[in-house]
Design goal:
- By secondary structure, the chain is of the alpha/beta class.
- It contains ten helices and 21 strands.
- A ten-stranded mixed sheet has the order 9-8-7-4-12-1-13-15-2-16, sandwiched between helices. The chain has a four-stranded antiparallel sheet with strand order 18-19-20-21, with helices on one face. It has a three-stranded mixed sheet with strand order 14-3-17, with no helix packed on it.
- Helix 6 runs parallel beside helix 7.
- The longest helix is centred in the middle third of the chain and has 22 residues.
Length: 485
């Protein structure tokens, strides 16, 4: 079993060599970092990743041509909340019991835990979070409300004249602007305060019941305003002596599907496709701002998604987008929430002028939990033993080094209902079915477990369970070992 855990020691030795050369590569000026996080965008949505995509993601395709495409990148979870938890903490969400989401909507991340923005703050970065949060707050409940849980977390039960504690500032962000979810609280939250009091009936998009929000709330302008704010932040900091970190967590193409009039009907496959194209242009607006301010050459840009796509096209039934001939999962089986690849195999593109070679692909295994150790290595910091226990630096990969530079070689993951472990091309799902909550989110299998060779069978069509007992035993022991940590 020693080979299963070799990557952790291997990468420590290699990273120490990189750290000695970082000053010569970057000088004393660390690059700005812009991390763009799409919400529910599938690997197959990008035309540069899926030759059969019905969409033309022009700006993302161009970004990919200017940097490195990670073709084997995975989110920390197969749904929104666990994925965000893993990204921010470098810790697999199943260790915190967050596989199924928030409990009573309180903060999931302990304020004493080391986080991605804290690591960057320690390195002198100015950190800012824009967009969807969805990791819990200390909501300002009205004194008359006795039972405080997810069922009565309603706008009318909260006192928005008071500051909302926790949220992005609670884990280290210097500035924040955004929302908790796309339809809650139907007001922008800036550094813990809503811009206005949510006390009016507002539209939540076509085909949805109205909700409560601030007067004149326009859900169709949510993504455009978030994009404008990111652009303004870049412009305001073009002469700053401090490097900046921007975390731009989009609210799209997650439902409600609310593309603006400019994008309605442009994809030819419905509102989901239209919203993906709006995301593409939002990325373009951020890139244009970096060019316009002269910051592009010293900015590391990362684009990715929090998990796979649910394949919804404004309705509630999964699979409706598939009827258009477009597969947001590409050749992968499964969708958001699944243990199958479509649930967590995500696009991941890195542009780092002068460091990351343009037009390169890497098939090395990567997980979003690795971001914390990666930025720590980039800024010359050690990660304490009691923090980010699942994070392995991928700095060599971001710099375009070959796979033998020492990175991750295994992954233990959890979908909405099932664990799976992965080493090399082999993947073992500990149960039958897709691993998601929705019955039609994938396929079922009569065998109790599922074993796939992703090298020869990336679509997970041929279950090899019971045919390779030694591999199955090895992957099961890997899960047992990780759960004991």
């Amino acid at each position: 079993m020693a080979g299963l855990y070799s990557s952790a020691m291997k990468h420590l030795c290699v990273i120490s060599v990189f750290l000695m050369g970082l000053v010569s590569v970057f000088g004393q000026n660390h690059p700005n970092i812009v991390f763009i996080f799409a919400d529910d965008m599938g690997y197959g949505d990008l035309s540069c990743l899926n030759p059969d995509s019905k969409l033309e993601t022009v700006r993302l395709d161009n970004l990919a041509s200017e940097g490195i495409v990670f073709t084997n990148a995975h989110s920390a979870g197969s749904t929104c909340v666990p994925s965000r938890y893993g990204l921010m903490t470098g810790r697999m969400p199943w260790r915190n019991g967050t596989s199924l989401g928030l409990k009573n909507h309180v903060p999931l991340i302990d304020d004493k835990r080391l986080t991605l923005p804290k690591v960057l703050n320690q390195a002198g970065y100015q950190t800012a979070a824009f967009g969807k949060w969805h990791l819990g707050w200390h909501w300002p409940w009205k004194e008359s409300i006795e039972k405080r849980n997810s069922r009565n977390l309603l706008v009318e039960n909260l006192d928005f004249s008071r500051k909302i504690e926790g949220g992005p500032p609670g884990i280290g962000f210097d500035y924040s602007f955004g929302v908790d979810e796309a339809t809650f609280p139907n007001a922008f939250i800036e550094d813990g305060y809503t811009l206005g009091i949510p006390d009016s009936e507002v539209s939540l998009g076509e085909g949805r019941k109205p909700g409560i929000g601030v007067k004149d709330w326009d859900i169709y302008d949510m993504m455009p305003e978030l994009t404008r704010r990111v652009v303004r932040h870049i412009e305001d900091n073009q002469s700053s002596e401090k490097p900046f970190f921007i975390y731009f967590a989009m609210t799209a193409p997650h439902t409600p599907l609310v593309p603006t009039d400019k994008f309605k009907g442009t994809s030819g496959i419905g509102p989901y496709g239209d919203f993906v194209l709006q995301c593409d242009q939002s990325v373009g607006a951020v890139l244009d701002a970096l060019d316009r301010t002269g910051l592009a050459e010293n900015t590391l840009v990362i684009f990715t998604s929090d998990n796979g796509s649910p394949a919804k096209n404004q309705g509630t039934k999964k699979g409706t987008i598939l009827q258009t001939g477009h597969s947001p999962s590409g050749i992968q089986s499964g969708f958001k929430g699944d243990a199958l690849e479509g649930g967590h195999h995500i696009p991941f593109i890195v542009r780092w002028p002068g460091v990351a070679p343009a037009g390169k692909n890497t098939n090395d295994l990567f997980c979003l939990v690795d971001m914390l150790a990666t930025v720590a290595a980039l800024t010359g910091q050690d990660v304490p033993a009691n923090a980010a226990e699942d994070s392995i630096s991928a700095l060599p990969l971001l710099m375009g080094k070959d796979s033998d530079s020492g990175t991750r070689d295994y992954l233990v993951h959890h979908s909405q209902t099932l664990f799976h472990s992965r080493k090399g091309d082999w993947k073992l799902i500990f149960g039958s079915g897709s691993g998601g909550l929705e019955k039609n989110s994938g396929k079922s299998d009569p065998d109790a477990w599922q074993l796939y060779n992703l090298g020869s069978d990336p679509s997970e069509l041929n279950n090899l369970y019971r045919q390779y007992p030694e591999i199955e035993e090895s992957l099961e022991q890997l899960l047992i070992h990780e759960k004991k940590k």
